[in-house]
Amino acid sequence: MVKKLPKVDVVIAGVGWGGGIIASELAKQGLKVVGLEKGDERKTEDYYMVHDELRYALRYELMQDLSKNTITFRRDQKMRALPMRQYGSFLFGDGIGGAGVHWNGQTFRFLPYDFQIRSQTIDRYGENKIPTDMTLQDWGITYDEIEPYYDKFEKMAGISGEENPLGGKRSDKYPTGPMKHSPQMEMFKEACENLNYHPYTIPSANLSEQYTNPDGISRAACQYCGFCERFGCEYGAKADPVVTVIPVAKETGNFELRTHSWVRRVLHQDGKATGVRYTDITTGEEIEQPADVVVLTSYVFNNVKLLLNSDVGRPYDPSDGTGVIGKNYAYQVIKGAATGFFEEQKFNNFAGAGALGMVIDDFNGDNFDHSDVDFIHGGYLALTQTGQRPIQNNPIPSGTANWGKEFKENSLKYVNRTLSVGAMGASMPYKQHYLDLDPTYTDAFGDPLLRMTYDFRDQDRQLAKFTAEKSREILEEMGADQIDSMDELGPYNITTYQSTHNTGGVIMGADPETSAVNNYLQMWDMENLFVVGASAFPHNSGYNPTDTVGALAYRAAEGIVEYSKNGGMLA
């Protein structure tokens, strides 16, 4: 028998960055909010003295149990999709804070071009520049409209940075100054300036100095320990929901957090959401939480899975391009990298921070002329110093044996004589790339798993080759004695880690026929249901997505407050 609880103003499914921001903003406005999270509660003290690479980086302490919930994958419709049973291409966070706990902290704003990508591409190059099967569309919002929300997220998180010389205009500077520069970062900066590029320090959620944000939350500065990605921060220096927005929501007395609560359905009647049904995974009890407003703020895949399993919205059909739920899945093209080996110079590669590095945007967005290349958009090129931990990092030049005496000698020689320039390439949407429910495999509760259909295309291969060549040029200017770079991007491989930057599936836009949510992330088909996260991205930019997720969450929170007062579709 399902247990039915008293109605609340708002129920949130997933308490990471999106859920934490929504909870904080709504609770401060006096709305009664319940946040449901299927994982554990976490706090900074849980990470004291746990620089344990084996436990966190290799055994995935902070990640979802794939034996209980995962996705299935295929490259195209002719293949049989199979479940991802071991972590590879990306990592699903688990517990309070979600992926916002184990991220690196690189916090870029998308370019103005991103938000009007289709119209600006056509204006400059003509409609033939866009492949016929590329489902490119504008976002239904401009950079100028989203800029104030970027500013709000960055001030809440205390982002440390300096102005991007090729980025959109800012209404204010970053709240804290840029991170320290290491010798290798200065080498990259000098090389890029010699090549007439425009280097700047990566904007970082790892605080460069002690900071108190507008909500009164104080945090300490980064210690450059090198344990950011896949780890929680023992200092609280890395902005995450656990040390920023969630405490603010709790302090109001208007927010109730329930852990171990696996949301399985959005309940709805007569075109409106009425609440959610979830399972208490500690007892197995089925619970119904009624609410005036339902907000889905879980990871990309779970947002889509919840909607499809709940029969909310129109599922995407790749055969004719109709429907919207599951449409425009996109990933990230980050294979365009080069590694330089230095015979004489040595570097301290062990020290670092998740967002420590230098970057250029000369080949990102539409910052260069694409007339003579066979792709659109681009990506940033960066030298990052995230901390080369000993188990996972063993760089050797090409031509070295993979075992034996030579392997051991080169492993020791080059461990601190290697620098890499990497690319974060944009991912464009295609008609053939989408998410739907798997007809065969189910999760621990018998609900269909989400199925991903995706592969790299000529756009991605050309982009990766281009950025690899540019990365090599920078390393040559830096004086590397040997450079290994990617010659060709092969098929997409879900077994090899690349990034956790999955996007799309519940995309935003100005037209209900081609998008699932408006620019407040309010569903066109169900006005009291909001879907927050990178699932709203119609494509993925040449950047990390978190700053844009945070900005859209603040805009959605503003919209939910307005909706709670007046109802109706938001303009």
From TrEMBL:
Pfam families, A to Z: GMC_oxred_C, GMC_oxred_N
Residues covered by the Glucose-methanol-choline oxidoreductase N-terminal domain: 142-330
Protein name as it appears in the record: Gluconate 2-dehydrogenase alpha chain
Keyword Oxidoreductase annotated: yes
GO molecular function: flavin adenine dinucleotide binding; oxidoreductase activity, acting on CH-OH group of donors
Organism: Lentibacillus halodurans
InterPro entries registered for this protein in UniProt: FAD/NAD-bd_sf (IPR036188), GMC_OxRdtase_N (IPR000172), GMC_OxRtase_C (IPR007867)
Highest classification ranks of the organism: Bacteria, Bacillati, Bacillota, Bacilli, Bacillales
Highest rank taxon of the organism: Bacteria
Keyword match Flavoprotein: yes
Domain Glucose-methanol-choline oxidoreductase C-terminal positions: 434-553
Family (UniProt): Belongs to the GMC oxidoreductase family.
Region (Disordered): 161-180
Keywords for the protein's UniProt record, in alphabetical order: FAD, Flavoprotein, Oxidoreductase
